[in-house]
Amino acid sequence: MTDQRMLTGDRPTGKLHLGHYVGSLANRVKLQHQYETFLIIADLHMLTTKNTREDIAQISTNARDMVLDELAAGIDPERSTFYLQSAIPEVSELNTLFQNLVTVPRLERVPSLKDMARDAHKEEMPYGLLGYPVLQAADILCVKSHVVPVGKDNHAHVEVTREIARRFNYLYGDVFPVPDLVESDVPTLVGTDGQGKMSKSIGNVIYLSDSEDEVRKKVAGMYTDPNRVRADIPGTVEGNPVFVYHDVFNDNLAEVEDLKDRYRAGKVGDVEVKDKLAAATNRYLDPMRERRARFAEQSGLVDEIIVEGTERTRREVQQVVFDVRKAMGLTSAYNQLRRKAERARKSRDTLQS
């Protein structure tokens, strides 16, 4: 492992699904062996779209589930540090300082923010959502991360972080590395309904923790070629969600090619294609289910991992904030005022005595 760092994570809005896995999580598992890894449980980001008391009350439960899913996917708790964002107030201080290094028009050009507002059924964009990329920059830079593995939706966010890091370094001196974005092999996974990306808010997901029966039911109901009403009608493979999933999750390449050939020729029905996809997807998820069960049976383990990681991360962030304030001159500004105030008090005390 090098001395370089990686920061990534998710909002604690529920369990992780296959879209999370191919979009970012698989890269995290691979890259944890190359970088010192920090994994954020981004509950402050969650508040931009889900901020009722009921939403907030679910943070701890969702955080446990999310960490379990990451451990199940192959994240090694000995190599990686999980932490709860809201438990580190210094991140909010960095967010405040960074807000002045980016303009409103620049943030309005981040395409995913409008999509997030729409998916959350927001008629108008909250101030916090517009500033989402700035807080994300604070998350990435608060541990001086060098790389950020993210899904396609967050590419523009990371570019804002890069711009803020460069702007800060130009104005105040080299404090931050300019982080690199690491793309996934499958940038976006279509949902089971074929109507867009896999998304918890839409409900077109297969969770990493789904049972074999749940996977079979979801695959059986997947969207496929709408023009193919009978098995003897030639079907379209390209862009067909069922075959997109076969390409990603089926380790039997010969089986996939055979199914494609017969599908195009009208010699196989959707039932067989989906049955084999369900079997392949369950093979893919089986090792994750086993690891998840192993970690879940150790009562309190996940809580310990989160708490110890949060305390360790806060110490790191406090040092970074000190470096930032020193570079900007904020520390010396207050020290000057404090020293003069102390001299004034001593002078008065001397006169009074």
Automatic annotation (TrEMBL):
The keyword ATP-binding applies. It is an enzyme of class 6 (ligase). SUPFAM superfamilies: Nucleotidylyl transferase. InterPro entries: aa-tRNA-synth_I_CS, aa-tRNA-synth_Ic, Rossmann-like_a/b/a_fold, Trp-tRNA-ligase, Trp-tRNA_synthetase. The keyword ATP-binding applies. The gene is trpS. Its EC number is 6.1.1.2. Belongs to the class-I aminoacyl-tRNA synthetase family. Keywords: Aminoacyl-tRNA synthetase, ATP-binding, Ligase, Nucleotide-binding, Protein biosynthesis. One of its GO terms (molecular function) is tryptophan-tRNA ligase activity. This is Tryptophan--tRNA ligase. CDD domains: TrpRS_core.
